[in-house]
């Protein structure tokens, strides 16, 4: 029951019997078409339909990943927003939205990877984003935290010498 409420809050209407009815109906239609094209000797069409049937589990897994990602993103947006407000910081809405969109984008990339859509491009984009973030953090710490880093290293050196 909690899953149904969470699903409906995400903006989708959940009609489980109708969903499974449509899924089973289209599965049997495609299997019937495969048998029919095989009997008629249309081997290329049969092979195409077979690849469609074999691809369906990837579509289902990608849809489930997207659903879970949307639910987790919404939940963590609320958690981050409430935590930041409780801490007394002013950027609660921004950090909540940033959390939601970061999770949603990574979820979308995972779903596209499951569907085998431009795997190399997705991998390059992820590596680029991680590298850019690492460089940005390194520059921010290096340029802005020189004094603080010097004091931390000095304190560490004193502790080691004692």
Automatic annotation (TrEMBL):
| Residue spans crossing the bilayer | 20-40, 52-73, 94-115, 121-142
Q: Is Secreted among the key words of this record?
A: no
UniProt entry keywords in alphabetical sequence: Membrane, Transmembrane, Transmembrane helix
- Keyword Lipoprotein among UniProt keywords: no
Task: Quote the InterPro entries the UniProt record gives.
Answer: MSC_TM_helix
| Pfam short name (any one) | MS_channel_1st_1
What is the protein name for this chain? Small-conductance mechanosensitive ion channel-like protein
């Amino acid at each position: 029951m909690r899953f149904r409420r969470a699903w409906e809050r995400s903006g989708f209407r959940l009609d489980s019997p109708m969903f499974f009815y449509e899924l089973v109906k289209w599965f049997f239609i495609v299997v019937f078409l495969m048998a029919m094209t095989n009997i008629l000797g249309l081997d290329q069409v049969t092979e195409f339909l077979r690849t469609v049937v074999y691809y369906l589990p990837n579509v289902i897994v990608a849809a489930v990943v997207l659903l879970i990602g949307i639910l987790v993103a919404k939940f963590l947006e609320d958690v981050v927003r409430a935590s930041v407000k409780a801490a007394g910081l002013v950027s609660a809405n921004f950090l909540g939205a940033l959390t939601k969109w970061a999770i949603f984008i990574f979820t979308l990339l995972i779903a596209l990877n499951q569907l085998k859509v431009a795997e190399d491009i997705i991998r390059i984009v992820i590596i680029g984003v991680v590298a850019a973030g690492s460089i940005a953090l390194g520059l921010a710490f290096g340029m802005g935290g020189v004094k603080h880093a010097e004091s931390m290293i000095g304190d560490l050196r004193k502790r080691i010498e004692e």
